[in-house]
Each structure stands twice: as structure tokens, then as C-alpha cells.
Amino acid sequence: MKIKKVVTLIVVFSSLVNFCNSQSREIFYYPKQTKSNKSTSPPFTIKLNDSIFIDVAPVDNFMYLEFLTNLKFFWTERIHDSIKKIPDYGLTKDIAYKLFENIPNNNLLWLNQKIPNNLMVDKTINSNVYLEHPKYSFHPLVNISKEQATLYCKWRTDAVKLFWAINTENIEERNKYPYKFVYRLPTKNELLTATQKFGYSNISIKKDEMPLFPYRTKYRSKYKKALFYKEGISEFVLDSLPFGSNWRKKNSINKLNDYTGFRCVCEVND
């Protein structure tokens, strides 16, 4: 039973990163690492400057559902503290299991991060349907609070740290990746810099189509730029009101809404 539990935990945590390497759903920009190309891009990101790597696109429904699964079954603040102490490489299943054994159920944290099912998207789609239906897997997550987005970034830091620790056997392999890094919400200036560097993309929406659309329209493994749309969603930032225009042309954030989402940046301090 212990072995099965360990395998389950590792699969769930690492699947966030493995997802970008799947043949049928390969959509994230995750270039290969080389000794001369250390930390070119942490998972799902593209380089903004020497220390900041930004998500190619906002967090989508698929990614957030994985986060909720982790919260429901084992990720807690206690786990977060334990992950800080794990080896940087050569993490075995036996060591990993000790992180998760005797951790009580965390249903309250999970429930607090769920998207309320009494909300609507575009006045026609129930928020649960939008979040969980495969048709909308790669649509940007909405009806989310800034606090929920912040916790997601914290969890994602742990997920990537575990992935690199499990999938590198020695210091030579581990040295291809940053040791000190954290996923967080971007600042307003970082998003301004990103839009200036990568520009805005165009998208054509038919009159009968839902105006809230996926940022990625093709399952490509590499992107040469971060994707921004002027009529997409506004995005949470650390230090100000949400950044950018949105398809509803609104700027209020007094309540959960269907025009504000977020993306992460990974700050590397090696």
C-alpha cells in the first residue's frame, strides 16, 4: 500500500510538468536544458530577463484542476515546509513517502480553493462546466480570487522542486536547473515589459463564438513569445489592479468575475 501511495503522489505532483512533454497534448514551451543553457526556461515559461521567466499563457482550467487534485489529497502548508528540506537531487520514493505520511485530510483548504458553482461565464455557462468540461480545458481560468492565485503559485513552486529532485540522479544533472527559484504573480512592470517585448497577438472570433477563448489554439511544443490578447482577460499582479484590457471592457474586481485570471512568473535567484 505504501508503494502505491508513493507512486500516486509522485505521479500527481510531477504530472504538472510531464504534461508539457506528452505527445498528444504538448503545448507548453519547455526547451531542453544543456550545460551551457542552464535554466533557459523553467516549466511552462519563456525568458523575460536574466532572472524572470514568464508563463507563455495564463493558467488554464486543466492546470487549476490538477492543483485542486493535489490540495484534496495531500498538499498542505506542512508539506510546503517539508519540501524546503528535501534533497536537491536523487529523491527516492522512500524519502518522498516520508513527506506525505501521517498528513491529515485537507478538505477545508481544498474547498476554499474551489470555484463556486453558482457563477456563470459569459452568462451562459455554469462555472463548474467551464472549469471541468474538456471543451474548455485550455481556456484561461476565471472566477478566481487573487488569494487563490497566490496559493497556486506557492504550490507550483513545490511541484517543480519535487519534479527536479525526483528526475535528477546526481549533481551534474541537477546543475542544469536553478536551485533557488519561486513561482509568483508578476508585477505590473514585468507584464508591461513582457507586452513590450512580445507584443500582442491577434485572434479572430466569430459572432456566434464564446468571446472568452483559449490563448493557445494549437498544441505546439514551443512558443517564441508569451501570448497576450487585448480582448482576452485581465491578469492579477502583485502590486496593483489587474493588468490589461479584457473582453468585457471592465476594470472592477469587487467580486469574482469572468474576465480576470492570472499567469505566473518564475523568479530565479541562482
From TrEMBL:
Residues 33-196 form the Sulfatase-modifying factor enzyme-like domain. It comes from Algibacter luteus. InterPro entries: CTDL_fold, SUMF_dom, SUMF_sf. This is Sulfatase-modifying factor enzyme 1. Pfam families: FGE-sulfatase.
